[in-house]
């Protein structure tokens, strides 16, 4: 479990890093851990209504929970987009392939691209100069 958590924390630390590469195993473990954490937070949200009553009746608590969940959701969305861009680059594809996500059937092709094995890394002149 320690290595899984290390992969997740590394992915979250690189939330706003769209350059670089991410191996296939690390990408899918990051995605699974992120979704498990989301499910866990949703499960924790239900007892709050039992504890405090209907959230809609408590305006301050509702505003806090809504704004917090919006901020966390935006952070996680950016983290998964950045991880997907790094994964596509590692598979030898352009990060612009993420735009396939907005085309109805082409998003299945994006899933295939994210599942491709890593390609050999060729160092360009830009990457070797200091």
UniProtKB/TrEMBL annotation:
Q: What is this protein called?
A: DUF805 domain-containing protein
Q: Which organism is it from?
A: Hyphobacterium vulgare
Q: Which PANTHER family match?
A: BLR8105 PROTEIN (PTHR34980:SF3), INNER MEMBRANE PROTEIN-RELATED-RELATED (PTHR34980)
So where does this one cross the membrane?
A: 27-48, 60-85, 97-115
Classification via Pfam families: DUF805
The answer to whether keyword Transmembrane helix applies is yes
Q: Which UniProt keywords apply?
A: Membrane, Transmembrane, Transmembrane helix
């Amino acid at each position: 479990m320690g290595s899984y958590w290390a992969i997740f924390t590394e992915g979250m630390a690189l939330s706003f890093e769209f350059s670089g590469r991410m191996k296939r195993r690390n990408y899918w473990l990051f995605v699974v851990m992120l979704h498990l954490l989301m499910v866990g937070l949703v499960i924790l949200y239900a007892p709050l209504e039992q504890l405090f009553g209907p959230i809609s009746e408590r305006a301050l608590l509702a505003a806090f929970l809504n704004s917090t969940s919006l901020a966390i959701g935006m952070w996680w969305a950016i983290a998964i987009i950045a991880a997907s861009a790094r994964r596509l680059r590692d598979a030898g594809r352009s990060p612009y392939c993420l735009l396939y996500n907005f085309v109805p059937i082409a998003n299945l092709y994006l899933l295939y691209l994210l599942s491709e094995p890593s390609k050999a890394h060729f160092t360009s002149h830009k990457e070797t100069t200091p």
